[in-house]
Amino acid sequence: MEWSIQEIARVSGTTSRTLRHYDDIGLLPPTRIGSNGYRYYDEHALTRLQRILLLRELGLGLPAIAEVVDGHQANADALTNHLRWLRQEKERLDRQIRSVETTILKMEGGEQLMAEEMFDGFDHTQYREEVEERWGKEAYAAGDRWYRSLSAEQKNRFRQDQLDIQRDYAAALEAGKPADGDEVQAITQRHFDWISVGWRGTHPNAQQFVGLGEMYVADDRFGANYGGIEGARFVRDAMAAYAERKL
């Protein structure tokens, strides 16, 4: 059997534009192109697309996905590392779910709310060792005091800003935008501003900003926030270009 690009886009939950992009970069060529110029896909192509979309869900960049689906084994370590991060993230989300459930039950029952229960799973201390090693214990302590001084709404806004930046970096990478281009540099400006907020209004200098980018690549836990090694390298390059131009 064969399916048209429109049918494949509909059943897979993606778009014709994305499928054409996968064709352009050699990731998912159509089985054939009809005389009308339409792309058609067979069962083998559907199986390949299923693997591609699964790996995208795991956070891999398109070049890494190409190596995996073409049978190269070098990315098994990357998948293993990302799987470890996903399990840690699942555990954290499970704790958040239990925390919210406890809050609801206590509110409905008129019981006293406990801060420790309400914020279980909202962990801002997971990188404490890295911060203390790189910038000293006082740097961590100061940041910790600042974060704890925020209201719940401010903390949520700060976390959401981070997620928005990560999402926009990933979209730019998938669209093939250059790391030093204006569109990506606008995202990097937001990233710089977000870091400055977390540093209590202190702007990182060029060396610090570039060093953070290198840390994203060197440490899988940081890199996972940007879709794995390919995404981390993209963000690092964008940060280096920003530092060269503006810092």
Write a compact overview of the structure shown.
With 247 residues, the chain is mainly alpha-helical. It contains 13 helices and 3 strands; from the N terminus they run E-H-H-E-E-H-H-H-H-H-H-H-H-H-H-H.
Which short descriptors sum up this protein?
3 domains; Multidrug-efflux Transporter Regulator, Chain: A, Domain 2; 247 residues; three-stranded antiparallel beta sheet; 3 strands; mainly alpha; globular; Globin-like
Characterise this structure.
The chain is mainly alpha-helical and 247 residues long. It has helices spanning 5-12, 16-24, 43-57, 62-69, 76-109, 115-118, 128-135, 137-149, 152-174, 182-198, 206-218, 220-223, 229-246; strands at residues 3-4, 32-33, 39-41. It folds into 3 domains: 3-57, Multidrug-efflux Transporter Regulator, Chain: A, Domain 2 (Orthogonal Bundle); 76-123; 125-246, Orthogonal Bundle (Globin-like), CATH 1.10.490.50.
Task: Find the CATH topology of the largest domain.
Answer: Globin-like
CATH homologous superfamily descriptor of the largest domain: Antibiotic binding domain of TipA-like multidrug resistance regulators
Side-by-side strand order of the widest sheet: 1-3-2
* Average predicted local confidence, pLDDT: 77
Principal-axis shape equals globular
Number of strands: 3
CATH class type of the largest domain: Mainly Alpha
Helix content: over 70%
| Count of all domains | 3
- Pattern of helices and strands: EHHEEHHHHHHHHHHH
Oligomer: single chain
**Whole-number radius of gyration?**
22 Å
Helical run tally: 13
Give the DSSP E fraction (strand runs of 2 or more residues): under 5%
CATH architecture of the largest domain: Orthogonal Bundle
The largest sheet is: 3 strands, antiparallel
Helices and strands: which structural class?
Answer: mainly alpha
Q: Kindly, what is the distance between the CA atoms of the first and last residues, rounded to a whole number of angstroms?
A: 57 Å
Stretches where pLDDT is under 50 for at least 5 consecutive residues are 113-124
